[in-house]
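User: Reviewer 2 asked us to show a designed sequence for the structure in our supplementary figure. I'm pasting the structure tokens here. Could you produce the per-position amino acids so we can include them in the response letter?
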């Protein structure tokens, strides 16, 4: 009929985390009780696909002790929001009309104006992430003509990087 807050106490029994809630004493015969519980569990990154709760109702009544139990399995889903930010330095580049590409030159300025593209991948959480793959396609040819001459590719922050075979083909 009425709603009451339960007094619950966490403890450890045989290496298992237990939360013990006292529902009432004494209880009237035939009483029906509905209990809604909200549990907050942390550190589930390596737990697998689900976590299992074993719920047990224990009665201390001497004539008919009851130990009814139920198992509840809850799927664990990691959630992380990734955000990709990018810049080009300089933001705008205008190639002079008199500029000519120099075939076979080893000087970078003979292959065009240097533009640096910087991409940052941010995890906005709430979970941690691992094994993330970021693929960036850069158009370097326009038909048979070089559109962008890709000099180098670098990373920061312990990332592994693989690159397209067309990276610096003339070894500038």
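Assistant: Here is a per-position design you can include in the supplement:
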């Amino acid at each position: 009929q009425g709603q009451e807050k339960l007094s619950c106490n966490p403890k450890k029994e045989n290496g298992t985390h237990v939360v013990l809630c006292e529902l009432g004493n004494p209880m009237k015969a035939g009483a029906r009780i509905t209990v809604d519980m909200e549990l907050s569990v942390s550190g589930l990154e390596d737990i697998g696909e689900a976590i299992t709760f074993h719920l047990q109702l224990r009665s201390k009544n001497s004539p008919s002790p009851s130990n009814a139990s139920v198992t509840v399995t809850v799927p664990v889903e990691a959630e992380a929001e990734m955000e990709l930010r990018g810049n080009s330095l300089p933001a705008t580049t205008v190639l002079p009309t008199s500029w000519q590409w120099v075939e076979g030159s080893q000087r970078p300025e003979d292959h065009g104006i240097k533009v640096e593209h910087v991409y940052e991948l941010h995890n906005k959480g709430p979970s941690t992430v691992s094994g993330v793959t970021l693929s960036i396609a850069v158009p370097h040819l326009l038909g048979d003509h070089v559109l962008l001459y890709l000099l180098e590719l670098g990373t920061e922050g312990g990332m592994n990087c693989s690159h397209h075979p067309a990276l610096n083909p003339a070894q500038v």
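For the response letter, you might also mention the following. The chain is about 0% helix and 30% strand. The two ends are 81 Å apart (CA to CA).
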